[in-house]
Write a structure and sequence with these properties.
The protein is mainly β. The chain is built from 1 helix and 5 strands; from the N terminus they run αβββββ. The protein has a 5-stranded antiparallel β-sheet, with no helix packed on it.
């Protein structure tokens, strides 16, 4: 079982949680329906981010003109390095951490 030690850090604001996530994989959802999973290298106060080894997932929804049935499809690609504008981000999920006694 792979566990990560939690540092003795007081998290006072969301940026503290992001600081703990530097050099770890995070999940970022963008407003245009894209999902990014990659290593967080840097961020700023506007939540602009630099991610490395990114797996981008794009979900497409097609609607049948006659039945109005929705069809979902996903496309994935790997991007070595990516700059993400903070105004496009709607969700950031840091890595799961487990405390070991």
């Amino acid at each position: 079982m792979d566990s990560t030690f939690i540092k003795e850090t007081v998290i006072k604001d969301p940026f503290d949680l992001l600081k703990l996530s530097i050099d770890e994989n995070i999940l970022v959802r963008l407003g245009n329906g894209r999902r990014l999973v990659g290593k967080l290298h840097a961020f700023d106060l506007h939540l602009n981010m630099v991610l490395g080894d990114v797996e981008e997932t794009v979900t497409d929804i097609d609607i049948d003109d006659e039945t109005y049935e929705e069809f979902f499809s996903e496309r994935k690609r790997i991007i070595p390095m990516l700059f993400v504008r903070g105004d496009r981000i709607i969700l950031i999920s840091p890595p799961k951490r487990e405390e070991v006694n």
